[in-house]
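Need residues for this backbone.
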């Protein structure tokens, strides 16, 4: 059964989508892993969907009327004049790549309309975990890319997950999302005490070799982490222009043109530490 990890931080722009996509590719493509990975895009902004599929393929998928994660949340919603749509895994799960070595990256894409589910949240939070439960045997790893705001989508992500991974960009106000995350996890554990939700750890993303501001910011994050017994990954994901470039090219950093080996190998160290942490 797949291990399921949500990438989450209540602060935006910290690298949730970037790390989701790069981890997915890493574990599918590297010869020592060859994993079957499913990415679930749980953000109405659909960044991970566009990153993985490319803008053109993403648009044609919507034009074909393929289902998205929105359909999972709305699969029980009765709308007058519209038949309840049966979920169809064959148009819901998009294959991003099947590698010769056996590794796979699949995607359940998102779309803007997912935001409508937030307006009428009524008891939809279990829909995703139910859907994933039925397909978990087909994958080794499921990565859920969360939106930066708390909603029923957050509860749905928690209910589906074994672990949370929290990317943090060490900069001014970097710790702002963390108290919100602490509260959110506490509220969840109170309400769903039978669900064992663990924190894989905090990973510093987009770090540079030397910056006094960064050091201050990391200290703030470390103090919140230690108060809550959170693990901080020793490996950091360094700042590299190859990450946004890779997003534009639709490639992970190790396949992005002219990416530097030193940057790639830093990501590899993080991926290795992450794999040990979640016993992949
Ligand atoms: N290590 C890095 N080095 C350089 N740029 C990075 C790095 N990680 C992420 N970025 C860039 O930072 C921006 C935000 O990253 P990303 O979209 O992954 O964050 P996010 O947490 O998913 O944001 P949101 O909360 O809006 O979903 C993107 O332009 C991305 O390319
Ligand atoms: Mg994102």
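Answer:
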């Amino acid at each position: 059964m797949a291990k399921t990890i949500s990438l989450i931080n209540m602060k935006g722009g910290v690298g949730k989508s970037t790390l989701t996509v790069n981890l997915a590719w890493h574990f599918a493509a590297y010869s020592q892993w060859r994993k079957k990975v499913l990415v679930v895009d749980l953000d109405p902004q659909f960044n991970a969907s566009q990153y993985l599929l490319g803008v053109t393929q993403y648009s044609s998928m919507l034009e074909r009327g393929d289902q998205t994660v929105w359909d999972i949340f709305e699969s029980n919603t009765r709308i007058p004049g519209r038949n309840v749509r049966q979920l169809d895994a064959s148009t819901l799960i998009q294959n991003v790549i099947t590698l010769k070595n056996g590794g796979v990256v699949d995607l359940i894409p998102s779309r803007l309309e997912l935001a409508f589910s937030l307006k009428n949240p009524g008891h939809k939070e279990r829909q995703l975990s139910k859907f994933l439960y039925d397909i978990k045997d087909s994958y080794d790893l499921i990565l859920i890319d969360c939106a930066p705001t708390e909603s029923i989508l957050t509860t749905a992500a928690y209910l589906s997950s074994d672990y949370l991974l929290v990317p943090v960009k060490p900069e001014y106000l970097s710790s702002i999302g963390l108290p919100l995350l602490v509260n959110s996890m506490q509220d969840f554990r109170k309400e769903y005490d039978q669900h064992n939700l663990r924190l894989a750890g905090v990973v510093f993303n987009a770090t540079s070799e030397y910056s006094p501001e960064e050091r201050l910011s990391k200290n703030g994050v470390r103090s919140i982490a230690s108060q809550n017994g959170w693990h901080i990954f020793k490996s950091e994901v360094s700042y590299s222009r190859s990450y946004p470039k890779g997003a534009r090219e639709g490639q992970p950093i190790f396949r992005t043109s002219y990416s530097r080996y030193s940057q790639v190998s830093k990501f590899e160290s993080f991926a290795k530490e992450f794999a040990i942490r979640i016993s992949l």
